[in-house]
Amino acid sequence: MNMFGKTTKLLVATALVAGLATTDAMAKKVYKWKLATTWGPTLSPFIDAPKKFAAMVEEMSDGRLKIRVDASNKHKAALGILDMVKGGQYEMGHSASYYWKGKDINTLPLSTMPFGLTTPEQYAWFYYGGGKELTQKVYAPHKVLSYPGGSSGNQMGGWFRKEINTVDDLKGLKMRIPGFAGEIMAKLGLTVTNIAPGELYTSLERGTIDALEWVGPGMDINMGFNKIAPYYYTGWHEPGLDLQFLINEKAFNKLPKDLQAIVETAMKAAAHDMYLQNYHMSAEAWASIEKDYPNIKIKTFPKEVMDAMKKVNLELREEMKAKNPLLKEILDSQEAYQKKARKWTEMSDYLYLKDNL
Amino acid sequence: MNMFGKTTKLLVATALVAGLATTDAMAKKVYKWKLATTWGPTLSPFIDAPKKFAAMVEEMSDGRLKIRVDASNKHKAALGILDMVKGGQYEMGHSASYYWKGKDINTLPLSTMPFGLTTPEQYAWFYYGGGKELTQKVYAPHKVLSYPGGSSGNQMGGWFRKEINTVDDLKGLKMRIPGFAGEIMAKLGLTVTNIAPGELYTSLERGTIDALEWVGPGMDINMGFNKIAPYYYTGWHEPGLDLQFLINEKAFNKLPKDLQAIVETAMKAAAHDMYLQNYHMSAEAWASIEKDYPNIKIKTFPKEVMDAMKKVNLELREEMKAKNPLLKEILDSQEAYQKKARKWTEMSDYLYLKDNL
Lengths: 357, 357
Fold this sequence. Notes:
With 357 residues, chain A is α/β, with parallel strands linked by helices. Chain A has 14 helices and eleven strands. In chain A, the strands form two sheets. The first copy, chain A, has a six-stranded mixed β-sheet, covered by helices on one side. A five-stranded mixed β-sheet of chain A has the order 2-1-3-10-4, sandwiched between helices. The interface between A and B is large, with 84 and 84 residues.
């Protein structure tokens, strides 16, 4: 029998095919992840950010990392995202850092702070002013990674049933307003609560709350709040709310380097895209108010009210700082950055806008 | 001889290794690209955007797409980027669209326009207001693709040797100011020129020009202009300059889908990063002016001068529109978008800043 007989040739061919298949499987090891969001399935643009992120990751990885995005109606735990990512039920989450202030107060200022940084200032602080390192310090004990998840831009101050002329008008109101702004409002005599997005309208309709802030015209008007609470106030409390991508640290460390880079870059692109989408939606919605929603009354809080909020803001910041060293470190860092960056914001965008409205 | 004898085993093993190597080479086909920039090798943050872009692409593609970034000292054609990408000497470029207005007037408004869109407005217009489609229309005849390359934010109005109090003070000055702003200045009696970044300081020092605008404090102060021309004016003419990534269409079409997605996403992340880096550098530099550069005199153009610029701006826009149908389409689209979005910019960021400076 010839050494290079038929059987041998067949064997070699089979081995080659097997070799190809094996390498292909190796090169193509598919990771399947799940991502839980705080948002309902149609809550644009918040829900779009993780969806676009997942699509980018799948395309860039040629299908090697597939991420299933679950809206809140699927997992039924809109405000339980951090726990689920920590516990590993979900490899990723999309939510907002200040929702975890009850579990860990240091998570609070990573979203936004009343009278704080605007969107470009907040992002410049995160990437170039030490924010990233402080964020890692906050989330390291939770064994999760936290990255910017998209900015809502400067938010509106909320919807009220009646006009607010004095600080006394605020007293006794029940309001949905999360984060530190909620604490300021509580100090001013309101009863403050956080409610998951899907239950906001019903809560307002049933009188569980008298007022609420949500985001801005692009998202608010779709929710129908204006039908019940037509006084719509401009913002002070969330000048640059940044949402949040959460990743289970162990899951992230298991990815090869190229997939890690793909995840990180896709988060950046999706976060910025959400800001633009929201800007666009707000511009469109604002333009429609005059024509389509003549009952909406646009207001700015009077100076007396704004001054009271600012005073309480400073007092509460100092109280919190005294009790929490890491929180103090973060707030001091943000405050120093704001002082520096706000001067530039004034000389560039503010002065330009002042002359071009 | 046993059918599964030594020789056969060896053959099979060799075939397996060969199989692995072949597939690995297939999966690992490496594309090597070159990218030419208008910027010198140390011109941060402009030069950093394409460098970070290339690094992200290489990491995400696991080395399958390597992009060499050439600064202007390498290719010696700072203002020849479009031609080199068109001609295929470079697969990519990083520059600014309005540098090509002499070749194709329609490229002009894709960078920024005097009294036009701010950075978030410009990006929202590009991705959600029809800008992307219009950009494709402009660049299709050149067989290149053009994407946002990073915003400088709201630029400063420039450095002057003497104070500008009236429109007459402008007359006869020789100024480096590119784009449409240059045409406005020409109409107001200045002699206007564009000069590549590397020659700006020398031109000012030798008196080839009397004044120049460059970017903003973060980049300007490093250039030393203040030593010669200490009057530093706030901006009107480039409220949201967006740089530009250019890609040779044929080269892009040769990439597999996953690498195309990697290129697109990396451009988005690098562009936004540049905006933040520049914001940070400007904030830092602005904070240093008072302390380190007491000779710099910060000024805003007086109302008489600003009104004259606005008047000429409107006149020249109408003249250009009458001559160029596609340019008219772009300018009309931007103007309509600005009207809508500016109202939202006013209600959100502007009102907030007004109360928090």
